[in-house]
Structure formats: structure tokens, C-alpha cells
Amino acid sequence: VAAMSTGTFVQLEPLNYRGGARVEPVDSSGTEKAFEPATGRVIATLQCSGENEVNLAVKSAKDAFEIWRKKSGMERGQVLLEAARMVKEQKDAIAIMETINNGKSIFEARLDIDTSWQCLEYYAGLAASMAGEHVQLPNGSFGYTRREPLGVCVGIGAWNYPFQIACWKSAPALACGNAMIFKPSPFTPMSALLLAEIYTKAGAPPGLFNVVQGGAATGQFLCQHRHVAKVSFTGSVPTGMKIMEMSSKGIKPVTLELGGKSPLIIFSDCDLENAVKGALVANFLTQGQVCCNGTRVFVQKEIIDKFTKEVVKQTQNIRIGDPLLEDTRMGPLINGPHLERVLGFIKSAKEEGATVLYGGEPYEPTDPKLKHGYYMTPCILTNCRDDMTCVREEIFGPVMSILSFKTEAEVLDRANDTTFGLAAGVFTRDIQRAHRVAAELQAGTCYINNYNVSPVELPFGGYKKSGFGRENGRVTIEYYSQLKTVYVEMGDVESPF
Ligand SMILES: NC(=O)c1ccc[n+]([C@@H]2O[C@H](COP(=O)([O-])OP(=O)(O)OC[C@H]3O[C@@H](n4cnc5c(N)ncnc54)[C@H](O)[C@@H]3O)[C@@H](O)[C@H]2O)c1
Ligand SMILES: C[N+](C)(C)CCCC=O
């Protein structure tokens, strides 16, 4: 992979990973095509794993779990630490794979790989410190608690951060002593395999991290399997509802990392230069295909003209093109239908009265090999109203809607008037206002004077329909473990019978 250039990669090896090796699935519930978004080429045709393959993957994970759960936290941490070292060592090769399969710029893909190995390193550190508590009771009796793993956990991923999602799920799961079966999105099947190989080489027992490829049907087999103890899902709200419904039938805990339509509030007393940079980071990473993007940009009336002018100027300068080139900052969208969907939102925004100040058009890079890629120019919409489709719905593309506001109370009401609650941001120099606003925003993550930074030490997850449960941070240990209470009698049993 290290020598790859755009337009050359083809997938030849099997894409499932079971028992410590790449395997072809024993049965299939259909096929899916995976593309290189930069060129529109098909790079792999997936056999979607059928029920028999899922059963084998669960069996293999269960066997590995029996070995892994008996290891000390320190021993588990050592494997995760070695895996982190290997991810760091192979950063460029993994980032190239991610760029080829997802379309994000190589510049960004490298940052994603950094947040991935950092996640492994962080949970490696936490693994040894997981402990219960000792509680003294009357007459010398006592109790203690044990934090125990859940068993075989399933991770189901979206296509926008394929490798990072696989790490954000597997690192805390394995640190807690679980095994994991990961199902990537069928659009981005590649990079999870690299993680699987790394875990094996780092010393994880074969089967501890299996990869099962496929779409909805495969996902259902996994969620419904009676030996699966937990499902952690990243994806859209409608699929999240289905996952929750299936898990409820088995009384299985779920983590749901779903979509968003997050507000970014820019007060007139902000540092304008930072606010403009913040708005770009909040909207255009990974071609705007980011769950927590601050796509409703509320700007206080006094500075809206100045802000908008500067945002347009900087958006015009974003270099679109071959995502493997070092100076590219925006690659193609994930696939043709998604590009059409995003362009459809822009069309309806115009019909509903918004003004396209810049972009929002299909884009054809000059390099002929990119002719069939899924490129568009990033789009700035103004004259937006809160009731417009582009302001209410998750577009999942590079489309920023700018809205004007007058007062803090008004903007808070409008910012919170959404069924989503993944993230929110505020730019102001007034420290009291910053914290007051952050406290009132109905979102799982609130950024003050920045946006879309996600250090592994801080929990990440949603309010409202954006989901529940958290990834990253110490708290995620609680989502991948269960608490056992042990009562110890030091006297005689007193019986009323
Ligand atoms: N909150 C977060 O951390 C986060 C991160 C990334 C993406 N997302 C969200 O993900 C969405 C985009 O991703 P997507 O298009 O891949 O989402 P999606 O819901 O279409 O698919 C997500 C995953 O679910 C699988 N799936 C689909 N139907 C299923 C079913 N019935 N049972 C089991 N699995 C099923 C898919 O194959 C895929 O692996 C956006 O809404 C985005 O906001 C959220
Ligand atoms: C790393 N980011 C930019 C915060 C994205 C997290 C995952 C969301 O899609």
C-alpha cells in the first residue's frame, strides 16, 4: 500500500478476518461493491457474510474471550500498547488505505490514524487500573465489587471514519476483557483488516478481534445472535432505531453514536479570525461527512457580513482534487448516490429561498483519471431560515448554512430546536457567556472557541436522537463492562425458618 497512487489499488485478499487470519466467508447474503471515490473505480466486490459465517465468527470470538477474560488488566494493556505502537509505525500505509477507500485527503487521514493509536494507548493505560471497591459491613462481613467484561461485543461502523471508528470501539472493549466482532460499512471494508492483523501480531489471541463484512442483513445476524452481549453502533438515526429494537429483544446494552445537525454560535465579541477557521473546521473536514459538524452557523447580526465575506474567501481557497496529493484539502464524496443526495439538498435550499454564496456544484478535477470521481465544491448558503430543509436535516456533505441572530436567549432557543444533540460550539471572548451558553446547549459535546477536536481523554457521544452511551474517556469503561457484587459472610447464617 505504501507505494500506492490514486487509480491503482485493487483488493485481492479476502476481506473477512476470523480466528487470526483473513478468510473468505463460508456463506453469503449477497454482494456489495466498494469504490475508490477519487476515480469511481470498483476496488472490491464484497461477499456479504451470511448467518453461517456470523456463527463461526461468534464462535471464534467466544473462544478467544475465554482466554482473554482471564488475563490481568496489565497483560491486556501490554497487547494494546504493542498494537498502538504498530499503528503508529504503519501510520502512512493505513492512512493511504483510508484515503483510497474513503476519499478524505491524506492530510486528514493521517490525523485520523493519530487519534486511533492514541485511543489504543489510552485504554492500554486504563486496563490495569480497572478495579472494584471493598465495602465493610456489620460484624466483620464485607462486600466487594468486580468490574467484569460483557463477553462478545459487536461493533458496527459508518464509512466516514472507518479506521478510527474500529479503534474507538475495539480499544475500550478489549481493555475491559471483551472480544469484538467488527462490521465495517460495506462502502469502506478495507482498513479494519489492517487493525485486525495488527491486533494478532501484537499478541491478541486468535478470534479476539474478528471482521465480518456485509450490509444490513449481516448486521442483523450479528445483533440478533444469542451469544452477542453488546452492540456498539455508529451510523444514522434510522439504522440506530433498528439496532436498538433488535437489541431490546435480547436485553442487550447498546451504544448508539448517531447523526447530528449541530449549531455553531458566533457572537460579535469573538476573535473573528478564529471563528472563521472554526466554522471551516466545523463544516468541511472529510468533505463535510462528519456526524458532529456544526452546520447551522448562527452569527450575531453585527458581524455577519464581515464573517460571511471571510468564510467565502477562505472556502474558495480550499484545494479540491486527488486526495493522495499532499496539498489537497478536499477529496471526493463517498459515492455517486451520496453526491447526488447532497446536491439535491442544495437545490431544495435554493427553492426554499436560500442564497448560494459560493460552491455547491459538481466539480471535475483537471487530472483525467479523476473524471469519474465524486467531487463537488464546498457550499456556503445564506439567507437561511430555521424551517428550511437544509437547516433541519443532516446533509452529510460540505454545506454550511449561515443564519443571523440578535440575542443570546434567542439563539439558544433556536440552536436547541432540533431533534439531534451530538455537538455544539460557541465563539466568544466573554468567559461567563461561554460557560453559560455551553451549560444551556442540549448536546453531548460543546466546544468553546474551537470545533471538531476530539482528544481521546474526553468522552464523545450524543443527547436526544444523536444517541446515548459514550466513546473515549474513562466513562467508556462502564459501557463495556458490568459490575458484580460479592457479599462475604463472616458470621453464621441467621434464618427465620
Ligand atoms: N455519532 C457518531 O460518532 C457518528 C460517527 C460517524 C458517523 N455517524 C453517522 O453515521 C451516518 C452515516 O453513516 P452510514 O451512512 O454508514 O450510516 P448507516 O446507518 O447507513 O450505516 C451504518 C452501519 O450500519 C449497518 N447497517 C445498516 N442497516 C443495518 C441493520 N438493519 N442492522 C444492522 N446494521 C445495519 C451498515 O451496513 C453500516 O455498517 C450519519 O448519520 C452520521 O452522522 C455518527
Ligand atoms: C474526529 N471528529 C472530527 C471529531 C469526528 C468524529 C467522528 C464523527 O463522525
TrEMBL record:
The keyword RNA-binding does not apply. Keywords: Oxidoreductase, Signal. Residues 30-486 form the Aldehyde dehydrogenase domain. The active site is at E257. The keyword Oxidoreductase applies. Belongs to the aldehyde dehydrogenase family. PANTHER family: ALDEHYDE DEHYDROGENASE-RELATED. This is 4-trimethylaminobutyraldehyde dehydrogenase.
